Inverse folding.
């Protein structure tokens, strides 16, 4: 008896998680994302075609016989970028670099392309957003010109593959994956199906030829990589390029890395000549070194890197019933908690003071290890007397006024010692009052007394 043929019906599928629905809905029932459910043809029926087994080209091997030698890496020419990648670019790796518009992704990758070409490798830089003249002008400004750096302005996937066959590069850069389209898939460039097809094709070429590919990805308003979530699963490395447009500081973070750790951070500085790496960013987040009231240094962690950051505080008599609490670079909720602990546990009168707290250099402190530095900076601002020279504060404050230990405390102390800080206020002080008492010329304020040192 002939089997019934499977019928093709119209269903709806989420481009983020693959959840299916018989009718269209605005919000996915699985991942709760809005606007990700699109039409998709699916086959239904009683019978389904059986998959015929094929003889494998390579037999499976015991895991104990697998060669454990490290996959050879090739440097990108930029030490900070290699740090994030885990030591360099692995042949055949697919790397996705995301970031907000204007943060410097294209400038960084053009610098990577130029240094790779200078090291003897041929690079194909495909610009799907800018003309060749625009890329050439940026290369002249940043000094990224080289004869082995080839440019192509294409948005068609088949044409890009033709350029790859013609130039035979050792590194392929596509800027960006959301602006390239394939003629085999319906829809405009940037559609989830187009992004998935373009990325999977380029990754397949990378694996077959051992050709490392760097894809530039757009981000959404909330900072996530635009397009289907499967894009992040397909690639080997996902890096995010971030920075405040008001400052020159830039960070590259690894969100996913199959070849290394994901807690490494590369530090860069935006200059008029392009992106410059900052191997030792110790001086970027410190003041001019003068002893001013309301300043205190802490040691923050960016990935595995310990960085000294100066916290500055300013207090003024309040002019209204509700004093102002203005923060920049720190968490406003934690600052409010630190102020409450200072008033309750150390006796500092802050309920009638406007308090302003900020960091130097545009860095953002999100970890609780900066609590003690914020407290000492505010205490110094209230008394109008500077903290001792070469002092660093490391510790988390509890609501009971205790100084709690923080992660990687020994690494922070070692970095403070290396930078020449002679006084380290940390968990050696059991509580905030002891920390204030241990400082030279500094004593805790009793409730009802005027704040002072």
């Amino acid at each position: 008896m002939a089997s019934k043929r499977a019928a093709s019906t119209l269903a709806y599928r989420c481009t983020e998680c693959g959840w299916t629905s018989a009718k269209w809905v605005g919000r996915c029932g699985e991942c709760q994302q809005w606007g990700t459910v699109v039409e998709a043809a699916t086959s239904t029926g009683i019978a389904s075609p059986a998959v015929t087994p094929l003889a494998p080209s390579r037999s499976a091997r015991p895991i104990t016989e697998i060669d454990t030698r490290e996959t050879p890496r090739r440097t990108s020419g930029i030490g900070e970028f290699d740090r994030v990648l885990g030591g360099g670019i692995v042949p055949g790796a697919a790397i996705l670099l995301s970031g907000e518009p204007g943060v410097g992704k294209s400038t960084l990758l053009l610098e990577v392309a130029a240094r790779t070409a200078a090291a003897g490798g041929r690079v194909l830089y495909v610009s799907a957003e800018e003309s060749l003249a625009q890329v050439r002008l940026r290369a002249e400004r940043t000094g990224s010109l080289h004869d082995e750096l080839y440019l192509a302005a294409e948005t068609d996937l088949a044409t890009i593959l033709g350029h790859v066959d013609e130039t035979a590069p050792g590194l392929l850069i596509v800027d960006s994956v959301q602006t390239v389209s394939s003629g085999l898939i319906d829809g405009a460039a940037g559609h989830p199906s187009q992004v998935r097809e373009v990325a999977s094709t380029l990754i397949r070429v990378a694996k077959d030829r051992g050709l490392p590919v760097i894809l530039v990805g757009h981000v959404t308003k909330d900072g996530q990589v635009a397009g289907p979530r499967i894009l992040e699963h397909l690639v080997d490395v996902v890096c995010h390029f971030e920075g405040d447009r008001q400052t020159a500081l830039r960070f590259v973070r690894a969100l996913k890395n199959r070849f290394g750790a994901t807690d490494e951070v590369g530090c860069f500085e935006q200059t008029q000549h392009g992106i410059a790496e900052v191997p030792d960013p110790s001086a970027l987040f410190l003041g001019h070194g003068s002893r001013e009231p309301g300043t205190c240094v802490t040691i923050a962690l960016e990935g595995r890197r310990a960085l000294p950051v100066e916290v500055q505080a300013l207090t003024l008599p309040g002019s209204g019933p509700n004093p102002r609490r203005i923060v920049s670079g720190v968490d406003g909720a934690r600052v409010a908690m630190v102020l409450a602990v200072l008033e309750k546990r150390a006796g500092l009168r802050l309920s009638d003071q406007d308090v302003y707290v900020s960091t130097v250099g545009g860095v953002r402190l999100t970890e609780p290890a900066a609590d003690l530095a914020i407290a000492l900076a505010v205490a110094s601002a209230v008394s109008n007397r500077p903290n001792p020279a070469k002092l660093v504060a490391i510790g988390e404050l509890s609501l009971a006024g205790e100084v709690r230990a923080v992660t990687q405390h020994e690494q922070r102390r070692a970095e403070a010692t290396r930078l020449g800080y002679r006084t380290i206020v940390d968990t050696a002080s059991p509580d905030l009052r002891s920390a204030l008492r241990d400082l030279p010329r500094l004593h805790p304020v009793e409730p009802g007394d005027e704040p002072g040192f």
Notes: Confidence is low (pLDDT under 50) at residues 1-8, 42-47, 441-453. The first strand starts at residue 7 and ends at 14.
